[in-house]
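Now read the record:
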Amino acid sequence: MDTEAQHTERDRSSAPGPGTDPGAGEAEERPRSRLSWLPGGGYTLTVLLVVLALLAVNRSVAQPFEIPSTSMEPALHVGDRVVVNKVAYRFGGTPRRGDVVVFDGAGYFGDGDYIKRVVGIGGDRVVCCGKDGRLRINGRPVSEPFLHPGDVASEVPFDLVVPSGRLFLLGDHRSDSRDSRDHLGSPGGGMVPLSSVIGRAETVVWPLSRWGGLGRDRTYEDVPAPGHGHG
């Protein structure tokens, strides 16, 4: 027989003894809160709801993206998780050369989201390649230190002008990247509209050993404004 259980039951039914709080028995008979299973009860629930609301808001501001291929090596490896800034271009800002962007490739690259580097913006003339093996943007040769070791700027020659409101996008691993070069003869000529850009990749957050910001590469800073080098 469980004597401790019996003792507890007797204590609940017996009259209050001397020095006992008269309301103690009544308090024990009150129904338990439905939130009693939750540590902290209603307070914890409120905190959880606030956190969920913040996560919902943050989803419209930033989102994670997992790198699916080797096309952006060595900057990004398969399985890396990056944070995509979804408001980077919402308030008058537009992608700039050197930005790493995530975009919806439907109708241009194929179904799904892709991640590439912006090489040409609206109005740019992009040519590959000069005698030095480098890309020329608006007549200015550019060195691309972020290219995968052993890669050249492009094995596919091209000479194009990027239409207004579109982007010419390439992977850093040029020998293993399906990008704007592969769709030059397709509708849109491989140029992705600004409206398809989801956001700018900002930071590698996983694995922790590779944590770090991507930023904008300075390679293209000296490229003249669109309209130059079209002759």
User: Anything to note?
Assistant: The first strand starts at residue 62 and ends at 66. The mean pLDDT is 80. The radius of gyration is 30 Å.
